[in-house]
Write a structure and sequence with these properties.
Arc Repressor Mutant, subunit A; 5 helices; 61% helix
Length: 96
Amino acid sequence: MEDEQIDAMSKLLKSMSHPIRLKILCLLRDQELSVGDIREQVKTTNANVSQHLNILRSQGIINFRKDANFIYNRIHDPRIVELMGKMQSLFCPETK
C-alpha cells in the first residue's frame, strides 16, 4: 500500500471510531434518518448529533437531503456499508 492510501484509511477510520459516530453509522446502514430520529436512538442532544454528523459529512462518509424542515442523513459511500457489515459479522455475530 502507498502512504497516501494508508493516510486516507487512517483518516477515515479515525472519523468513524468515536462511539456515537459508530452508532450513527450502524443506524444509517440500512436506512436514512432525520437528526431527531438519530438523537432518539443515541440518546444525546441535537447539537451533539449535528456535530458528529458534520464530522462524518466532512469525510464524505454520509450525505443528506432536505425535505421541508427536516434533514435526512444516509451513508454516501457504499464501501462504508460493506465495512459496517463486515465489522458486525466479526464483532456482533449474534445480530446478523
